[in-house]
Amino acid sequence: MLLPLPPGDFRAYLFDCDGTIADSMPLHYTAWCAALDEWGCEFPEELFYAWGGRPIADIVATLNERHGLAMPVDTVVRRQEELYERSLPDLTAVPEVLAHIEADHGRIPFAVVSGSTRAGVTASLTTLGLLDRFEALVCAGDYARPKPDPEAFLLAAQRLGVAPADCLVFEDTELGIRAATAAGMAAVRVPAPWERAGRIGARPM
Description:
This protein has helices spanning 25-37, 45-50, 56-67, 73-86, 95-104, 118-128, 151-160, 174-182, and strands spanning 12-15, 110-113, 136-138, 167-171, 186-189, 202-203. By secondary structure, the protein is α/β, with parallel strands linked by helices. It has a 6-stranded mixed beta sheet with strand order 3-2-1-4-5-6, covered by helices on one side. Helix 1 crosses helix 4 and helix 3 (56-67) crosses helix 4.
């Protein structure tokens, strides 16, 4: 099943990774809970999904502030990624997004624009057998201002050599949709796992 797309003659597709290409959010949440439990830090599931799209180092830093903790950011990030990578055998692609990748690969260039680290994105795409479909990866550390700032999407468009107005963004988070809109790009919202049985909509810029 293909997601309905907004009208336009798009020359590039930009995809978020977690929750958009990879149906990884439940696996990531389990890894987060295990990593944070080692430091006595709670991370409610509702908050986890509300913060979708934020760089993982920023999540740890914000949890420190909220709970008055001093978790070492790099250590927790590495631990979360380690635990997530253990769950990769259970990872699957989001079918509706995979259909677009399969249908349009080779016709126009693709890029990934993610708040996850390059190692995490590469691991997910490699597991799914999709890494070679993308001409560019823009990940945490490649840009200074995370979503909803448009910097990451604009950087991806630049790397592909395509004007922002000619790019279509696939995103599962409100932060990502806002970033795409700020970049002057049309966007498709990918529903969360529990929403996919209902209506799937596209949002023009």
